[in-house]
Amino acid sequence: MSRLKTLGTYLLIAIGFYIFATAMIYIGLNASYKNITNKGNLSNQIKIDLAQSTKVNGRIYGKITSTNENNLEGKYIKVNIFDKKDRLVGTKYLKIEGTYVNQPKKFMVFFTAEYINSYTVEIIEDTEEVRQAVEESKNLYKDIFTDEELTGFGVIVLIFGLTLIP
């Protein structure tokens, strides 16, 4: 019976350590995010809730709102990200679908790029040139933009990989 209690104690200690380590990693990674600035003029139909980056990744959360005067259905959100030297690092296009008048719709952009310092967000019309730019940017920036935020483990692996590469 004492071996069972000892095993149970070790199991509780291991579970407690796992919860503690996971919480500390989450807090540590989220504390490493720094706000990035918008270097363009935002339309009154765009609201950015959060724009942050770390050394290796970043995220932009925002909302768009259609109005009676300017319906956004079928248009694109164009997001550009820039590094510390103001060089364009990537462009992401998001098709606007399923919007209702005066009801905000959320959008999210996740990226894995180093030293991102600023961004621009704009709404553009759907034209043939824009559709070609969308396809080109998908191929050109496929390694920069992701569909979901990196997990804590993913960020740790990415940081170690970048520090080991000469």
Description:
With about 170 residues, the protein is α+β, with helices and mostly antiparallel strands. It folds into 2 domains: about 30 residues; about 130 residues, Immunoglobulin-like. It contains 3 helices and 9 strands; from the N terminus they run H-E-E-E-E-E-E-E-E-H-E-H. The strands form 2 sheets. A 5-stranded antiparallel beta sheet has the order 1-3-4-7-9, with no helix packed on it. Strand 3 and strand 4 form a beta hairpin. The model has no long low-confidence stretch (mean pLDDT about 85).
Structural descriptors:
Immunoglobulin-like; 2 domains; 32% strand; four-stranded mixed β-sheet; alpha+beta; elongated; five-stranded antiparallel β-sheet; 3 helices; 166 residues
What is the topology, as strand order, of the major beta sheet? 1-3-4-7-9
Mean residue pLDDT = 86
What amount of the residues lies in strands?
25-35%
Measure the end-to-end span.
55 Å
Instruction: Report low-confidence residues grouped into runs of 5 or more.
Output: none
Secondary structure category: alpha+beta
Q: Helix-strand pattern, N to C? A: HEEEEEEEEHEH
The level of helicity is: 25-40%
Give the assembly state of these chains.
single chain
For the biggest sheet, the summary is: 5 strands, antiparallel
Cα radius of gyration in angstroms:
21 Å
- Kindly state the number of beta strands: 9
Number of domains: 2
Going by CATH, the architecture of the largest domain would be Sandwich
Number of helices: 3
Tertiary shape? elongated
Query: What is the name of the CATH class of the largest domain?
Result: Mainly Beta
